[in-house]
Amino acid sequence: MKNPLLIGLLLLGTTTSVQAQTNPVTLNFYSGGDVNVKDLWENNLLPMYQKTHPNVRINLVFSSHGDNDQATIDRMAAAKKAGKPSGIDLLEGPVDDAGTAGLMDKLSVQKVPLLARVSPAVVNRAHSYGVPYRASSVVLAYDSSRVKNPPKTVAALLDWINKNPGQFTYNTPDTGGSGNAFVTRILMGNLTPADASFFQTDYDAAREKAWSKGLSTLKTLAPKLYQNGQYSQNNVGTLQLLGKGAIQMGPVWSDMGLSYLKQGLLPDNIKLTQIDPPLAGGAAYLGVAADSVNKAAAYDFLNWLLTPEVQSVVVDKMNGYPGVKLQYMPKDVQTRFGDIAGDFSYGFSSKFGSDMNRLWYEQVAGTAQPQH
């Protein structure tokens, strides 16, 4: 017999959130991140959901900076081993790691219909264990008053840097994702798609010889950077150099750049664009615990999270990309993100990333990697 609730989800989920829960239920939602993420849930999204779903109470358990993520996963694993429910229904954070351990529910358009509006590549990145409800990526920020035709490809960017000495820089790859993404993109320039995928998910130090040309390119580039080879201190450092006109171009996080522009911390002449192949980015994922006893309500909440009205709030409050493809968003959002929110690549796996940082210091900076 077909599940009538599932049929209802499929029929209604493509246009609106589904009132899936008629009996009172409490969803225990474990999340983590910075204070802006906490504010998004507590002050915006959860009150919105409660207004239209009075029978569903969402109990937010928040971990500042995700410090308790591992403890949450350990609790879920212990409950599974004991054959008892963990009491966790929703998890924002390392859903892929938890899913690999058998602790998360595999999601699909049958369960969350509006997943059909999300890029399959982004869903697959978390192996379908989570709904990507917001995202950001590293993009190229430039001074439009001095750079009339910003580079659109990696080759064009390198050419521009060489022809405009002192006008570009990035932070060291161990001090922030924007500089890390720039270094990663240069090293990926000589990798096949299959090799790039391996570097993003697996580890084999012997393969790092494929980075030699990219590391050489970065070393050659160094004297052409700001003040004959000065790197910015971190993500914010690059934004500050752009803000005071010390450089004309640099890689920045999209959400940080948009936030700085919104707050007037960057002048209006600073614009953001993406290059091809794109710089790295990522999404924030929210998934359903495998042992949740409230899955129908949890699926409904995830589906609601992907509706245009809710996604618009996420975009406005977080200055990030929507979780759904841009074509499903209002025109003003499409216009705002049209030049940057097309696609993004992914960084290297943690072990490759650690090796990359070390080799960058040894072969590009010519120093030992500092201890943090």
From TrEMBL:
Keywords: Signal
UniProt keyword annotation of Manganese present: no
Protein name, as recorded: ABC transporter substrate-binding protein
Organism taxonomic ancestry: Bacteria, Thermotogati, Deinococcota, Deinococci, Deinococcales
Signal sequence bounds: 1-20
Domain of life: Bacteria
